[in-house]
Hints:
CATH topology of the largest domain: Chitinase A, domain 3
Shape: elongated
Strand content: 15-25%
CATH architecture of the largest domain: Roll
Order of helices and strands: HHHHHHEEEEHEHEE
Number of helices: 8
Number of domains: 2
Radius of gyration: 25 Å
Distance between the termini: 44 Å
Largest sheet: 7 strands, antiparallel
Amino acid sequence: MLPFMFYLISIKTGYNVTEKYNSVELQASYGIGFQMGEQxxxxxxxxxxxxxxxxxxxxxxxxxxxxxxxxxxxxAFNEIHxxxxxxxxxxxxxxxxxxxxxxxxxxxxxxxTVTPSGLQYEVLTAGEGEKPAANSTVRTHxxxxxxxxxxxxxxxxxxxxxxxxxxxxxxxxxEALQMMPVGSKWRLHVPHDLAYGxxxxxxxxxxxxxxxxxxxxxxxxx
Length: 222
């Protein structure tokens, strides 16, 4: 893999890497740095300083004492994380506002129950079976859409129920399933923070998406 990777690098840059990095050790070392650079470039923050990155890498590799103490580092990481979250929220402001408006209007319906977390649900079919616990594994049928009605996933359409641990899915599902007796079918209206949040999921579910699921609890497997 490495020779091919460096061949690609030389094509991209127009530079014959082996003229400077003329041993396999140097080439592999350069490759590690190049891959780290690509990772940093894929999700940078404003003000990222590559020279400081190099200094931190050199100090850590050389087992030197860090030049910035852990408390200061923690505060800096937290501040940068908050800035990046704020920037992403601003970028997807439309989706956030659209989801909030949908939930506010939906909550006015008499058949909707709103939980303290903000999850909204309506009972389509009332089951009478046992309720799963957080550590249970369940079998369900489900149908998931965006609030505009676009379907992103459906076990009904596949013709195959899904099995999964209750605590291994999105927060909105984990909360709802523990309230659902077996045999129930509920429609969940899930705020983005109880779904896939700022990251979204794949190409179908964008960041900060409010989601709607029809969930039918067929059985508690374990």
